[in-house]
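To close the chapter, one final illustration. This time we ask the reader to focus less on the individual chains and more on the assembly as a whole: which components sit near each other, and how the overall shape emerges from the parts.
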Amino acid sequence: MTMSRLRSPDPTAADARPANRTISPAEVDLSVEIPTRRGPWRWSHPILPASGTFGYGEEFEPFLPPGTFAAIVPKSISLEPRPGNPPPRCIETPAGLLNSIGLQNPGLEAFRARNLPQLRRYGAPIVVNVVGRSIEDYQQVVESLHEEEGVAGFELNVSCPNVKEGLQFGLDPEATGQLIAAVRSVTDAALVAKLTPNVTDIVEQAQAAEAAGADVVSLVNTLRGMAIDWRTGRSRLGLPTGGLSGPAIRPVALRMVYEVAQGVSIPVCGIGGITDPEHVLDFVVVGASIVQVGTHLYRDPACLVEWLDRLRVLLAAEGHSRLSDLRGTFRAG
Amino acid sequence: MSRATREVRTVEPSTITRNEDLGEGWFLLEVHAPSLAPRVRAGQFVQVKVSEGDDPLIRRPFSVSDVLPEPGDGAERIQILYQVVGPGTRRMQRFRPEEPVDLLGPLGNPLPHPEVPSNGLLLLVGGGIGVAPLHMLCRELAARADAPPHKVLLGARRRSLLVGWEAFERLGVDTEVSTDDGSAGHAGNVVELARRVLDTVPAGAAAGIGCGPHGMNVALRDLSLEREIPFWISLENYMPCGFGACFGCVIPTPDGSRYRRVCVEGPAFPTSELPAVF
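The assembled structure is written out below.
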């Protein structure tokens, strides 16, 4: 990534701070509009759960109506069922969680038969997260689900660090582009490309996804990491490496969202260590249109209800009546 | 997912009423949690938020060892046992009475009450922090007029580590102990003691529940399968969420074909459903 690719701030743009006027939190509009090939996603707020941290929705029923989220992103689905990785699968690290879950999932048919009807009951749009071993796998899952009621689109996981094939797509812009283009050739459904941070230049990945027909890019997936016990010389996980999430990765994610938002013209979904509504606003200021909350949901599964109120309070206190006015207002100078 | 899990709510506000140093790094935490306490059954656990900050990040799961004044309707407080072993429990050590604490629960499925004939024996074998769910189970059994005959076996390396022994004695439960160094009770490990006790029970009349360190759990599984005794082991795997979302706390099925979540399918499993390595 060279800084020259970043667009300089427009000197004629109005100051992000609005004129002095008292705004009540109730007046604040958190809505977002994301253009897609099947028409815009119009949501009342910008917060989704991050795939892999929200199960298939039912796990959260005791805590809040899962449909409170702008859209639901269930755990990744592959064509065939996957058992996942051997335990131990998680270890806590400083301000973070290192995991090696390995995309355990029931497979396409079980998802359609059991999870999808359940997910529809929540009323929120469903963005199905898809992973595959081959381009054909992704195409088959998407084609099989894209006309299903309630399915608002797909998030293509081209970036899981814990299984070989997803990462191979996500490491090379050409392969990322081929995958997105191949899926785009079989559907006009909304496509979100979920990008890995484990690359030298994530902007190239995002641009490749955009050029190949992605409607949105979401980033970041987990950062590859290790936790070992030097006494035994072994990993603290069942596999040598895992993926790091949580507040520890937030500065990296924020930087990457900032760079990508300037390098593409499609909307960006910010992901990485959000544990507070103020972090949502950080991501919006550097250019994210929507965000996903992941690891924090383990700690506070019901947080969204309070967060929506707090977002309005925070924005009103700074004189903002619309969340969208804040998007991309970061000032480098 | 079990019905019990679906009833989970974050309890707000909960207030610490006691955080007692029991010695040897063990603590007893008592929390006033009037909406959670009546719903807790033996074997269930709560997730404790140890810090409002980012580090430690993840809640810590603990079995409920008692609810007060009595289990069931009217219960107001819960107790959990913890041992200071890392950053999370070190933070908990600093909890003070009157402070608020955020608990999630009750989580997981209740322990069964295995029935045995009147000449039989329900064996409850605990080691270390594993005594917590067994103590809660003894409280439930004490409230039953028709409780099956039961006996508690506790094991530790030495006498001072026999956490909870007095609590079982106070309940009036038949309790035997073992210590590796012979400083109390049977000299040796608690699984050997269990083997001896089972020798005195008529064939087909025993059942058991165990909860302890990993090595003890494995040995109890092997013993129960060898003797063909219905036996459950309550597991204490690391659980990032505790309610089924993360798939982080899994164990393999005996044939190794798939993984099961300890938090929502357990935390106790019949030993026939545990693999040789878990």
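Chain A has one domain: 17-326. The first helix of chain A runs from residue 108 to 121. With these observations in hand, you are ready for the problems at the end of the chapter.
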